[in-house]
Amino acid sequence: MMPVPPLLGTMAFAGCVVAVCAGAVQQDGGVQAEEAYGGYFLRLGAIVCGVSLVAQIAVSCACGESIEQELAVNSDSTRVFREDEGISKLVPVVHGRKDTSTPLNKYTVKEVAQHSNRSDLWIMVDGLVYDITSYVDKHPGGVLPMENMAGKDCTDVLANYHAARVFKHMLPPFLIGEVTDYTVFPHVADFRAVRQELLRRGLFETDMRYYAKMCTWYMLLLLSSLYLSLHGQHAMIRMSGAVGIGLFWQQLAGLGHDLGHSGVTHVFMKDHLIGSVLTSLMGISTCWWKRNHNTHHIACNSIEHDPDIQHMPLMAVSPRIWSKPFWSTYYEKWVTMDAFGQWAVGHQDYLFFILMAFARFNLYVQSLTLLLSRERVHFRKTELVGLIVYFSWVGAVTLSQATAFQSVAWLLLSHAASGLLHVQIVTSHWAMETHHGRAYNDERDEWYITQLKTTMNIDTNPWLDWVHIGLQFQIEHHLYPRLPKHNLRKARDLVKVVCKKHGIHYHEPCFFQAVRDTMMTLSSAAAHARSSKKGKSGFYESALWDGLTLSG
Question: Whose CA is closest to 193, among 81, 68, 72?
Fold first, then answer.
């Protein structure tokens, strides 16, 4: 069902912006000398938001953080902490099955691994085997994450992505057996203990005061940027408004990211609905984002399965991506390097920042492609209306500029400023390890090790956490994705202790070093691209392949 009141509100917002634009421009195209009523309300709204934000920050500094509602330490091995809507509770590790008269079937890890496709999909959770084949197409998080975890140990994936009620009500009917050789590695036990401690301390519960401050900040950015864009008396002032809009999109993406992970209210449909309504301000489909991002989390830096490193023919983070043509399970197409791809990838270190500046246009295309497809998604109509609202107000502000040149400049500059978000996203992973196929096979690439090998943090001062919108704690976010971002720094302290104990590399450079590492990775891949040659496939293949296969 379409949320009519929120959509009417966003449509009214778009109408107001269009009206303000009309009032800001004279018939001859010049800017009015006197401020229109629309400008007055924008300025007043920005002032109110600014005062409110300062007041909220002052209260937070005076009162301090909320006191953690800690639960008693759990000493019962048959029970664990899980959360529903962010509230921690102590529940059985395994919920009982209805029919206990017959013993469970026995399987080995190798036997379970044979059931690893969409039409025959088994998983392991806490040493038990579940046949979830009949549920694959009903999975709210999409089919692709299920396919990537088929035949694997899903204990940590399920615990970190799902609420307690899933274990109690949804999982038991699919139980078919138990694993006879199930092993919990020492480092895995410690990472699970970190999650238990986070739950015991109540850190999965969202502090709504944090989001009250952030939403006030978003509105301050939006209203002040619109005022500058529409009522600035000089072109440079209006262009500063464009930069402000770009930063608004970058900042709002942090909220969209949290909603996509059900990390605000912790209710899947509620967070999804809020995110879908916000399409009218973000211009990016939450449906598309969840489809893409859920797959990325599960198949992080997998050459064949992770869409976030599949950017051929424009970019490639490793020569392994074009060593041989491969089938992308996300885009459902063959990925190869043709002559244009060889040139583009061969110069990607020079093109990087240009591509990041215009990457937002690609997200519009991706969003519309999914929403106009036949694929099953939630709130399709809501998001389509939201995109109409978004393009209406952005288009109105663009066309309100004094000259055609300034209109083009405003549009490009606002999108270039939002490119900071894309730089932040790619630096979290592109300089880290990539791998072929599906991970989670043994101790060397199980859930926690894979996330740490493919993800980096950004070392930053706590006062600058708002700049990075939570992306500075990508390690902790990938390990515990439902943890609210205002508690990720606390999780970081616990995770680093486990990594040090087990000798696991924890990569956390500063932002500029992370960008430098990313550029070096792209430069290295570019050099390989320039030296690649046509293979038997008819496409360019990395010269590195000959060395790896002892051929040539």
Answer: 81
